[in-house]
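Sequence in, structure out. Go.
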Amino acid sequence: MVLILLGIFTNTLEGFQGGILMSITHSFVSPALFCCVGFIYDRYENRSIINFRGLARYMPLMTILIFLLFLVEIGFPLTANFIGELLILKGMFDVIHYFILIMCVPYVLLVAMIFKTFNTMFFGPVNYEITKFSDLTLKETCALLVLMLPLISIFIFPQLVLDLGGYMFYSYSLFS
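Output:
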């Protein structure tokens, strides 16, 4: 969210387009991750990460989908957020050159925290309560795919969103 605001406030076309692109992709990634948390809570009635070791063995589809959502969330290359982050970083570099170095530290810490959380929940010694439940149902899988299909289409056709961001930027620039 900070990158989105930074991109918009750089007052450059690239930063604004990246901020719009990331805000749209964020509006699909976050609900999908919250759905995953809800699916896990429905099964185990517990939200403590430490209690969910070894989920990958009994929930392989959930593991794959959450991993893909985490990759989109951190802006991994070949995801929709990657394009937005590159545009935001280009916009920030045009305004303040050294600011990218300042942003690297919290970003690396965020990526480390996400992968540590993923590793803790899905791998390691299996908690005995996990063996009671199954993987995602068809209804849950369809709900996640409905949220993931726009992310795939935004990655394939980012120009649609970038044109919208450019139109908004020039409309805003005319009035200020």
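Check: Residues 2-175 form one domain. The two ends are 24 Å apart (CA to CA).
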